[in-house]
Amino acid sequence: MKTLATLLIILPAMIFAQHQPIDLFIGTYTNNGKSKGIYVYAFDPATGSATLRSTAAANNPSFLAISADRKYIYAANENGDGEGAVSAYAYDEATGRLSLLSQQLTQGDAPCHVAVDRGGTHVVVSNYGGGSISVFPIEPDGSLGAISQLIQHTGSGPDQSRQQAPHVHSAFFTPDERRIYVQDLGTDNVHIYDFRPASADGPLIPAAQPVAKSSPGGGPRHLTQSADGKFVYLIEEMIANVLVYRQQNGRLEAIQEVEINEAGFAGKNGAADIKLSPDGQFLYASNRGDANTLAIYRVNATDGTLTKVGNQSVLGRGPRNFNISPDGKYLLVANQNTDEVVVFSRDAATGLLQDTRHRIAVGSPVCLVF
């Protein structure tokens, strides 16, 4: 049992730790000359401000993932013409610097998403232009080995202007990491694979339910999941809806579809990212195009369904990605087309957002990772 004297020592240390800056990694597009690569900022949870720590030069590191031990960063280099790649970096927390360890071609154009398992065994890359998934083993030093699996999707969707072929947009591990969900915008499919890192045939194996359908012409882009994996929330880029699935015995069943936009909206859509708050009580979804808003929903704790709370302007254009600070106090939006990250404070009771007036000026920000 802790004595009062011990508590008086521990509690200030805990409070101090909670207010220590945390590192924020920003992926960007560099092909327009506005940015240099990956940016590392120290984000202050006490104030919502950020200070640049380092920059790592890279070509179009549009999406990032961090290893569970925070020693390595993996970046999808969203290049075309056969130059799509994935890069591995060692991260020095003391200096904030990234050091390139290795780079591998993904054998698919325009890789736009990267995921790493908590065990640190594999990196999974989604090739939008190639319509494929590339899997790489992680070496003991954090670098990437040669590609071990390349899965090519086939098919198309009803919108022939956008869905003439497969366009794999993201891959997310389930909370227990027994499966991975792969979103294909071109075919309106969520592909489901069992994840078996030790399998000699490759770690991704089609699950008993290999595909869950989304809305026709919806364009699956990203998803997020409840902490227990019972509910899955899919954002549909082309129609700007959120589709809710219930997961039971390894199978997904669609139970609700809700709109992102405010009533009466008739502009162009480009729904992009979706996140649950750390406490799981609120869900946020962004729409680009003519909307440039975040939709805010309250999550029903019993059945996982959503109730719209409201819409928040992102105070910029092109909210391609956003993230919530680990303590849930802030929501940061990467406004790609206005070259800045907008920092909102978040009300944990209502889910609503308020502008902190803090901005991070960076060219074409497209991914935020804490």
From TrEMBL:
Any single GO CC term annotated in Swiss-Prot or TrEMBL for this entry: cytosol
The keyword Cytoplasm appears for this protein: no
Matching InterPro entries: Cycloisomerase_2, Haem_d1_sf, Lactonase_7-beta_prop, WD40/YVTN_repeat-like_dom_sf
Keywords, in A-Z order: Carbohydrate metabolism, Glucose metabolism, Signal
Molecular function (Gene Ontology), one example: 6-phosphogluconolactonase activity
Family matches, as Gene3D superfamilies: YVTN repeat-like/Quinoprotein amine dehydrogenase (2.130.10.10)
Superkingdom of origin organism: Bacteria
A Gene Ontology biological process term: glucose metabolic process
N-terminal signal peptide: 1-17
Family listed: Belongs to the cycloisomerase 2 family.
Record-given protein name: 6-phosphogluconolactonase
Organism, as annotated: Parapedobacter luteus
Lineage of producing organism: Bacteria, Pseudomonadati, Bacteroidota, Sphingobacteriia, Sphingobacteriales
